[in-house]
Amino acid sequence: MVAVVGALVLAGTPALAATSYTCSNAELVRVACADAACEVLDEAILTVAIDGYDRFTVCGEALCWSGTGTRQVSGAYEIVTGVGLKSEIGDGGAPNDAVLAFDPKTGMGTILAPPFYSPIHCQVHPGE
User: Fold this and answer.
1) Which residues are within 8 A (CB) of 47 and not within 5 positions of it... i.e. 6 or more apart?
2) Which residues are the signal sequence here (predicted)?
3) Which of 53, 66, 93, 108 has the least CB density, counted as fewest CB within 10 Å?
4) What pLDDT band is residue 2 in, cutting at 50, 70 and 90?
């Protein structure tokens, strides 16, 4: 794993495009925030994925958004941002922005996708 991460850092962003991630907070504390107040929710299980073609998907409860993600490496962390992700559920809903930041060595990170602000655990799938 260390060799893969090192190769990604040395190669820069183009190498990231071949890497897929799947993330979830199913085993972690789940949090939702509104109006600068946050609460722990039992039912707010999130799933997050970015594939080798930079399709970024964030789903939780009855909400799901997807679109193109932008990847970058910053120090030991990988960061994926999605601006104006489109709703995939219901009547189309409003677009949403999301940021996933995580440590590929441990898989631990954070997802910010209002109304969800949650710790998350990611698995890296090189070459997919």
Assistant:
1) 22, 23, 24, 57, 58, 59, 60
2) 1-17
3) 53
4) very low
